[in-house]
Fold this protein.
Amino acid sequence: MDADPFRVFLEMQMKLPRNAPGSNTMTRTMFESLEGLPQEPEMLFMGCGQGNDVLELLRCSKGRATAVDMLKPFLAKLEAKAEVAGISGERLRTVCSDFEALDLPDGIFDLIWSEGAIYTLGFEEGLKAWAKYLKPGGLAVVSECTWLTDTPSAEARLFWDKAYPIMGTLAENVERAKRAGFELLSTHVLPEEEWWTEYYQPLIPQIAAVREAHAGDAGVQAMLDEEETEIRLYERHAADYGYAFYVLRKRA
């Protein structure tokens, strides 16, 4: 019997060091650039996955984290890593929920952090939905796949028009953030190596192993084809698009 492609995809992702472009170094650098946070910030992580960013910010701050993801296996992995790291339950709370069903009090967080997850709602729509959780003047640090040119290659445009048709340029996303009630403090584009070192390079052997293990399974093979297409596209057109961090402040 053929396997569920999403379940196979999830199993692959669980074996990776992280589940989107980025690094602990970049996460820490972005956090250390922030100004105006209290000594013990209340932090909300949206779409945290296995929680690399959660653990890094708990290591470099005295804050408390509420980590949200809709997939229990990711949260279980985060909890296990937190226990090994000696991070107490008083500093980490996990919430298994999708964004639209999330039940949290309004206006209690100093910082919202989200790496590579806001696309599930859309950049502007996500910021509008999440703003209510922040205190007035609270900060949001969000990474989003972004066009880096107004004239991308036809191949890149064709792929992303299908995969993420509302992907914006830096300028477009700044305007979207303003409409969502935020002011822009800064933007930072991830270097190309942030895509390769802990995401694409570990993913490539995973694809090869799964392709062999599920030979003849059309659904799984199609999923793997999509993953390989994305990787090869970035090899050819990294100048056209990338992940960018947006550092934002909620307007009072």
